[in-house]
Amino acid sequence: MKRKVWVVIIITLAATGLVLKGTPSQALDARTVAPASSAVITSTVAPRNIILFIGDGMGTEHIRAAGMYQHGSAGTLTLESLPYTSTMTTYAADNPVTDSAASATAMATGHKVANGVLSIAYPGDERELETLLERFHTHCKRAGLVTTTPATNATPAAFGAHEFSRSYYNNIANDYLTQTRPDILFGGGGYGLNPTNAASAGYTVVLDRASMQALTPPLTGRVSGQFGVTNLPYEYDYFVGTDPGYTTLPHLSEMVTTALTLLENAPNGFFLMVEGGRIDHAAHANHITRTVFEVLEFDRAVAVAYTWALSRTDTLLIVTADHETGGLRIIANNGAGNFPTVTWTSTGHTAAAVPVYAWGVNAELATQVHDNTDIYQLATAGLSATPLCTPTPVRIVTFRGRPHFDVPTFQRSNGRTLKR
Ligand SMILES: [Zn+2]
After folding, report:
1. Which of 76, 117, 289, 417 would be a feasible disulfide site paired with 67, CB 3.0-4.6 Å?
2. How far is the CA of 376 from the centre of ligand 1 (A)?
3. Hey, is 356 helix, strand or coil?
4. Which protein residues have their CB within 5 A of the ion that is ligand 1?
5. pLDDT at residue 53 greater than cutoff 70
6. What domains can you pick out in the chain, each with its CATH number?
7. Cα–Cα distance, 199 to 144 (Å, whole number)
């Protein structure tokens, strides 16, 4: 029985590309992985608006490479101009190398979970862990999730779903539509989400750039942007003309522009999570061209939010990553307009620490962030002193708690049950 379980785990790791490569000192034994950070980040003030950018798989070298290509030198991206910085560890509860589900859960809930798990205390008592999206909803803030992957993919799902596996796409979509109810859900469609089930749940559905940009504030209901039925295209492929997708589909920066337009007049402020989801995909494939272009579009999206926030005094902007992908190392800067010469040491994720950048209310506390669970504390610092909302301009999520055996069988993706 035990042996069978390990076979399943190994096959799963291999299939998802989570192959740990590195020196023995880097390859910590999972049993010796340290507990979550003991940092306590507090504040007497709370931002009205919280914007969290996550570059999936975006390590320090990915950022430097993009700066070299775009401006001729590292350290030149907009995200790098945010005034407060740190680096943080990303390990999962069961593995020194995290996947996106465990790392996003750590940021969304402040708890370490096993790879593949979405905001459920596993290992642990298997309760649903309240996410930033749910917590901010209890303070009547609006909340949006924006990504370049399908909207039900692991990173946004950790903020808006509670599932034992990131592959339970139908369950994740059901959690969005019936339980956590993000006010804005922009990304690729498919994978459990479709125009019919979103509309039935009361969402306005938009399918392309034009219909997205035709949305007019104030946002009174909820909106689901389903841009295609899989990932958004690679920016590089559009640049070189091999994928025309962005002729009609919105770039990440355009999704952020619309999201801010719809959210900025929310009576009690908002929480917005934005993921650059395909940096990771390009880095898995060791494609420096696609990696650089994905980081650059992510940086343009950050610039949209930073420009918007700079005219205000009530917003916290955080930019970070969930893990490093590819073991990227830059060998030579080849100047602006040329891709740097690089090496890759992996086609999977690594245990490398990732950077954190912050600007705005409580941003100085970002220097205390040393682990991904600290992001939850940074985002919610001062929040407990602010009132829960009455009356409610938006629906307050019922934090209902759901043991895993309570999930209706018909909702399980592919009829599979999770073995462990
Ligand atoms: Zn990955």
Report:
1. 76
2. 22
3. strand
4. 280
5. yes
6. 20-400 (3.40.720.10)
7. 17
